[in-house]
Amino acid sequence: VPCHTICDCPAGYNSCTGSPGEAGICFSQVFGPLPSPLPGPFCGSTCQCNGGVGCVGGYCVPATMTASPNPVIIPAGQTTATFTLTWNAPDYSQVDLLGVQNLQNPGQVLFLGTGLGSGTALEPMSVGEVATLWLYNHGDRTTPIATLRVTGRH
Q1: Which residues contact 77 (CB under 8 A, 6 or more apart)?
Q2: What is the rounded distance in angstroms from the CA atom of residue 42 to the CA atom of residue 46?
Q3: Is there a cis peptide before residue 37, judged by omega within 30 degrees of 0?
Q4: pTM of the full predicted structure?
Q5: In degrees to the nearest 10, what's the CA dihedral of 38, 95, 134, 129?
Q6: Model pLDDT for residues 36-92, shown as the tens digit of each residue
Q7: Rama region for 112: left / alpha / beta (φ>0; ψ in -120 to 50; rest)
Q8: Which residues lie across from 116 on neighbouring strands?
Q9: If phi over 0 gives left and psi between -120 and 50 gives alpha, with beta otherwise, what is residue 107?
């Protein structure tokens, strides 16, 4: 496959012999034993991976977002409890978190903040709350790189 930079190469290739202004070819170069199973296609840059996927260690690896616990169990006699939100967006330096829930400002998509490509945060959850969270590459809200639904109940 002809290329000028690694971003011209499809996933499955991790190098380009070309340079800007000078054509080259895409090729795969692997050092050491291959992991089993392969975590994803070979890559040399995140630009070769589909949205929500970063290039880590030469492989396309998807972004993840989890809540623990989920559902959030709120003890009897209380109206709120907390959960730990964890995200990991390989090869993304910053991410934006947006969300929507059914209790306060129901249905309104809210900007919740910007953070590093991976991290954790302690978040509140109310009884009966259902929240959908979206993780985006910072400044690019075209396609979420990870999605999560969190619920709270007694």
Answers
A1: none
A2: 11
A3: yes
A4: 0.72
A5: 120
A6: 555 566 777 777 776 667 777 777 788 899 999 999 999 999 999 999 999 998 878
A7: alpha
A8: 94
A9: left
C-alpha angle 93-95-101 in degrees, rounded to nearest 5:
165
Look up residue 118 and give its two tokens. Answer: 């991976």
d(CA 145, CA 135): 6
Name, in order, each residue with C-beta under 8 angstroms of 109's C-beta and a sequence gap of 6 or more: 98, 99, 100
Buried/exposed code over 52-86 (b: 16+ C-beta within 10 A; e: otherwise): bbbbbebbbbbbbbebeebebebeeeeeebebebe
Tell me if residue 26 falls in helix, strand or coil: strand
Distance CA 92, CA 94 (A): 6
- 51 within 8 A of 145, measured Cβ to Cβ: yes
